[in-house]
Write a structure and sequence with these properties.
With about 180 residues, the protein is an alpha+beta fold. It is built from 5 helices and 8 strands; from the N terminus they run H-E-E-E-H-E-E-H-H-H-E-E-E. Strand 2 and strand 3 form a beta hairpin. The radius of gyration is 26 Å and the shape is elongated. The mean pLDDT is about 90.
Length: about 180
């Protein structure tokens, strides 16, 4: 439960005319607590000032938020421990994410790759087919392509890449890409 030390400051702000929204733990009559969202303000009627507060039980929202955090944690663990190169591009073809394994395969540090164009490390002969695949993904169509890239030492690595659109608000905002190192094959 929240410390009572915040109450005087909140009351001062509310009485000064602010509308505050905050969360508190509320005690149920059976002794358990549950989260409440409170929106509080004052209203003046004639010469009288009244305190107004609206309460909402946000237990379900808090449970959904916790489930989302757990799901994101599992997803991040899965991606970070994958044996393949996993990366994301924005709609301009800039790298916005790459997993640690991907950076290791390419021989770079993650910060060296973030913000870079996907085209910089692709062999010139493979660039047209990769660019066509990127265009198709940005139009909402998943793609698969094999491409040769240079690692940090100039060695050629062949990746089998699967790319899918990354949608934000119903619009393709980039792509998620999964590349298996098939150089030995």
């Amino acid at each position: 439960p929240e410390s009572a030390q915040h109450i005087p400051e909140r009351m001062r702000r509310i009485l000064a005319g602010e509308i505050l929204t905050f969360e508190v733990e509320h005690y149920h009559k059976d002794g358990h607590t549950f989260p409440l969202e409170v929106t509080a303000s004052t209203i003046t009627v004639g010469s009288e000032k009244y305190f107004l507060a609206f309460h909402s039980d946000i237990t379900e929202r808090k449970q959904a938020e916790e489930a989302l955090r757990e799901s994101e944690k599992r997803f991040r663990t899965m991606i970070e421990t994958a044996h393949d190169v996993v990366w994301a591009l924005d709609a301009q073809g800039k790298v916005t994410y790459i997993n640690q394994r991907g950076a290791e395969i390419l021989g770079y540090q993650i910060p060296d790759l973030i913000g870079e164009s996907y085209t910089l490390k692709i062999l010139e002969e493979d660039l047209p087919k990769v660019q066509e695949a990127v265009i198709q993904v940005l139009q909402g169509q998943p793609q698969s392509v094999e491409a040769r890239i240079y690692d940090s030492e100039g060695k050629i690595i062949t990746l089998s890449v699967n790319s899918v659109p990354d949608y934000k608000n119903g619009i393709v905002a980039g792509s998620f890409n999964f590349g298996s190192d098939i150089t030995e094959r």
